[in-house]
Amino acid sequence: MAMDDMTFKLGDKVWIEPEGNFMNPENKTSVVTGGASGIGAALCKALANKGANVVVSDINEAAAAALAKEIGGTSFKCNVRNETEICDLVSFAEQQYGQIDLFCSNAGLAFGEPSHAASATNEQWQTCWDVHVMAHVYASRAVLPSMIARKEGYLVNIASAAGLLCQVGDAAYSATKHAAVSLAESLAITHKSDGITVSVVCPQYVATPLTGYDEVGASNEEIGVLSAENVADTIVQGIEADRFMIHTHPDVKGYFQARAGDHDSWIAGMQRMREKIIEKVGSTRLEDMHKMFSGK
Q: How many CA atoms lie within 13 A of 132 on its CB side?
């Protein structure tokens, strides 16, 4: 098989080096959902610092407006579970700035499990599906036609390390984050020839309200908890470098490779880890599990 400069061979497989559509956020219009807190807020600030026109979108209208004022952007209230509201968000951004260059689908949530792995309610499972998967679908439906028409555009879908591995104590979160990664792969494979770039972000523990951290800028890197600001900077670097998979926590890639290499051993290790968490802190609640590693 003939090889060119864009390919390399590993064993009997041929891998293709990606051709980068490197993006400079300066003067580009960026929309961020779930943008009023956590990773979303930090990402809005990081993009604004790069000179982007930022639309802060969140279900919390007051918080979105306050952040938009702080960074010189605009805000729009949006419940990402509602496709009509996402379409309205897209229309608003286009009216404000002419076109959307970068859409960051970031909103997320977690409920945990009352008892066994299927014990979350139907409503909680559906909410996870709507926010972690369908919101990305709705956003893609809304922005892809114009992006395809002009042969350029960038989609960033925030998933989770749980979408590559598993979140102990939250099957609904893990299952829907896996689906989010798969959707991003389909978008990237299908629309590269249309000039569309896609990234998926798979952070592990981040110091946000979702993981029980209230302090802005908090982190505990000794136990793998990064600040939202650190994570946002890594995301922007990934966007600028046109990386599909953006690992904000370096260890996750190694865990994922180990999982792929021997799935049975990985499952056994996760089973033992869960037993140790229960033994030490008595719960698989996200806030409690941090005690396992912090020694608190």
A: 27
